[in-house]
Amino acid sequence: MDFLFDTNGKTIRSCAFFIGIGMLTVFTTGCWQAVYVAQSSPSEPVALFLTWQQDPTTTMTIDWQTEHDAQALSTVRYKKVGSNDWLEINAVQIAFPYSDRTVHRVELTGLEPATEYRFYVGEYNRAYKFRTIQENVIDEPLVFAAGGDTRPAAWTFQDHYPEGLGTMEDLNEIALQYDVDFIAWAGDLAYADGLEENLERWYWWFDANMSSLIDEDGRVVPVVVGIGNHEVLNGYYFRHEEYEQTDEWREKIAPYFYSLFAFPGQPGYGKLDFGNYLSLIFLDTDHSNPVEGVQTEWLESVLSDRQEVPHIFPLYHVPAYPSHRNPDGDIPTRVRENWVSLFEENGVRVVFEAHDHTYKRTHPIRNGRIDPNGITYIGDGAWGRGTRIGNHSDEWYINKFADEYHAIIVTLHGAHQHFLMVNENG
Prior knowledge:
Blueprint: E1 2-5, E2 11-13, H1 31-38, E3 47-51, E4 60-67, E5 75-80, E6 87-90, E7 92-95, E8 101-108, E9 116-121, E10 128-131, E11 142-147, H2 168-177, E12 182-185, H3 199-212, E13 223-225, H4 247-253, H5 255-260, E14 270-274, E15 278-282, H6 294-304, E16 311-315, H7 330-345, E17 350-353, E18 359-362, E19 365-366, E20 369-370, E21 376-379, E22 398-402, E23 407-413, E24 416-422
Parallel strand pairs: 11-12, 12-13, 15-16, 17-21
Antiparallel strand pairs: 1-2, 1-24, 3-4, 4-8, 5-6, 5-9, 7-8, 9-10, 11-23, 14-15, 18-21, 18-22, 19-20, 23-24
C-alpha cells in the first residue's frame, strides 16, 4: 500500500513502486589494510552504531562498544574508497549506564557528499563502509525508512510476544533490500524503561542492529532516533514530582538514552538538516520534556527558519491522531493544541507518529477536519513490536488501518514524496 504526493502535497494517485537492492562493488584498500588485518585482533566490537549530529552530507558519527577494556585502542581509521590516504581520529569515551561496557564515539567532519568511505574502529580488523548523503534530490532520489517501537528477536517474552512473530531484524533486512540511506525511529527502542535490571535489553537491541543493518559489502546503515515512554523511568517526566527541565534531570530519568545516542542529545528534541532540502525534526511527547512551553517555542522557531525547505518531517512518539489509544487523552490533545497548527503554518506535508503498535494513515487534515491540502499522519509504531487491534481505527481521521508490522520506505525526488509500506514479509 502506498501513495504519492505532488509538489503541493495533495494525494494524486496510488501506485506500485519498488527500489531494488543496490549493486555491490568490490574495492581494494591497499597494503595498510593487509598489515592491519594480519594483527591478531578480534574481528568486531560488541556493538557498532552510526548516526549523525550535523549535516549528513558532510559528517558521520561512529559509536562502538567494548567490554571491560575502557583503555582499549580508541581511534577510527578511515579513507575515501578509491583513495590510498588513510586518516585517523581519536574517540571520546562514554560510560554505558549500569554496565562494564564503554561507548567510543567519533564524529567525522569535512567529508565529501555522496561518497563512500571505508573505516576500522579501535583494534578490530573487520573493514566497514558508510556513505555520505547527496547534496540534493534533484539528480538522484534519497531513500530512507521510518517507523518506531522496535523489538529484537532475543526479546521473546513468551506470554506476550512468542517466537515466530515479526522482529526488528526482519524489518531491518527488508529496509536493506531497498538500499535505504538511513533509518529513523520515533522512540520505544529497547523497552528498558531506564531500569538497571533491563540492561540486557539494550545489549539485545544493539546486537540486532549489528546482525541486520550491515550489508554484504560491509556498509553500515545509519540510524537516527527519538525518545519514547520506554526510554524513561515511569515513562513521562510528570510522574517525577521534583522534575526540573534540566540536563541533569533528563539524564536521571532517561539514563540510557542520553548516554547511548549522540543525536538528538540534550535537551532530547532536535533537528537534522540534510543540505537545504530535508529537515527531520525529532520531538519529545512528554517523556523527558513537556510538550508545551520551551519545546513548542523551539519548534516554532525551527519551522519558521525552514520555510524554504521542501521536505520537512516531524517525528515523535505519542500520536496526535492515534489508532489504538484514546484521541482525547492528555498527550494527544496537547500535541494537537501545541504543535499541529505550527505544522500547518509551515509547509509540513507528512508527520511520522508511533506508540500504538499498529499501522495507520490519516486522511489529509487541516484545521481539525479532512482537507485535500492538509497534513497526512503516518505511523503508529510496529517495527517488530507486537501489533494491536485498532480500538479507535474508526475515527473520522483514519484513512487506512492495519494490525501489521511495518516499515515506511520514503523516497524523495525533486519536490515529490513517495511512501511505500512494507511488512516483515516484504
